Amino acid sequence: MATKRQEIRTRTENVEQGRDRQNGRSPAGLKNGNAEKLARGLGWFSIGLGLAEVLAPRAVAKIAGVDDEDTRLIRLFGLREIASGVGIFMQGEHPTEAIFSRVAGDALDIASLVKAFTSSKSSKGRVAFATANVLAVTALDVLCAYQLSKDGTGGTQVRKSIIINSSPEELYEFWHNFENLPTFMKHLESVRVTGEGRSHWIARAPAGGTVKWDAEVTDDRPNELIAWRSLEGSDVENVGSVRFERAPGGRGTIVKVEVEYSPPGGALGSLVAKLFGEEPEQQISDDLRCLKQVMEVGEVVVSDGTIWDNALLTQRPPQPVPGEEMSKSQSATS
Fold it and tell me: What value does the mean pLDDT of the chain take?
């Protein structure tokens, strides 16, 4: 009977994964629509620029400020651009290799412009302007390649675990009430249940302000597993799960958290988060430690030397105990 249930579950997961691929999501469940849209835009840009270089190389040379005697080289660059654009569309939803080929082509373009800048026949101002534009496009190519290649989804994946001296039943019940989550996840402002298996989340953004998203429960196994994913149109696309496994020897419960998310702004947003001290792995580790305190002690233990800063526990600089400084001065006087 157990084997039959496992077979049914496997078939269901396969169907879900097939539906995910049709919707542009990875098997893990995270949609990477921003990178795909950027890749398509770069594909059309490649084809358009390539046609211009092939059909009107002298005009392109004049705009770039380079010697118009290099029309043969410009046409070759145009053919390369067209090939890159066609490759992006031929590779489908994740044209990682084609985008990396654009990055390599950008390097050749920059090298050619640097060489042209040293030529006495070139217009230094126009070459500098063309170089600035190529550098801007190169930045987009690198960003898109990074998003498409990272874990195959463009998202950030975090896996953390901790042992808590509570039963799986207690932990499951506490976590299953999503409105409890802000009590130990300090980056969350609120979580509100909006319907059967659905909830609305509000969190603080790294650089100030808030981000919001709606989520739905995708798998719910009492005392064992809770899995969720964000809904379409969310500020932060994310999927995640938390597992509750009884620790060996009756020493509490192993809580395992897996989260995959696409930060606002993609790779740039992830960099901003790091600059503001909100590294995802550290943040989730802190959250789990706070959960451990809530379940074992009843509250998050905060000493006089500890403060919440950017959703992380940090330590205050040493300060004299009130009244201590005065007593010291009195004893020195006497």
Answer: 76
Ramachandran area for residue 51 (φ above 0: left; ψ -120 to 50: alpha; else beta): alpha
The burial of 268, by beta-carbon neighbours within 10 Å (0-12 exposed, 13-18 middle, 19 or more buried), is given as middle
Is residue 201 within 8 Å of residue 218, measured between CB atoms?
Answer: no
Highest average pLDDT, of 6-20, 204-218, 220-234, comes from 220-234
Task: Write down the H helix ranges in the chain.
Answer: 2-22, 33-55, 57-64, 71-90, 96-117, 124-149, 168-176, 266-275, 280-296, 324-333
- 323 Cβ contact list (under 8 Å, min separation 6): none
CA distance 192 to 180: 10
> What is the per-residue pLDDT across 139-181, written as a single tens digit (0 to 9) for each?
988 888 877 765 444 456 789 999 999 999 999 999 999 999 9
CATH number of 155-315: 3.30.530.20
Distance CA 251, CA 152 (A): 37
Task: Indicate the DSSP class of residue 321.
Answer: P
Gap between the Cα atoms of 301 and 61, Å rounded? 67
User: Fold identical between 33-151 and 155-315?
Assistant: no
Nearest alpha carbon to residue 266 among 17, 22, 43, 39:
39
Kindly give, in sequence order, each residue whose CB lies less than 8 Å from that of residue 17, ignoring residues fewer than 6 positions away: 27
Q: If you search the block for the tokens 């960099």, which residue do you land on?
A: 271
Report the phi/psi class of residue 24: left, alpha or beta, with left for phi > 0 and alpha for psi in -120 to 50: left
Cβ–Cβ under 8 Å, residues 287 and 185: yes
The CATH code of domain 33-151 reads 1.20.120
Would you list the domain boundaries of the chain? 33-151, 155-315
Looking up tokens 């040379």 gives 61
- Summarize the confidence of residues 179-186 as an average pLDDT: 90
- β-partners of residue 212 are 202
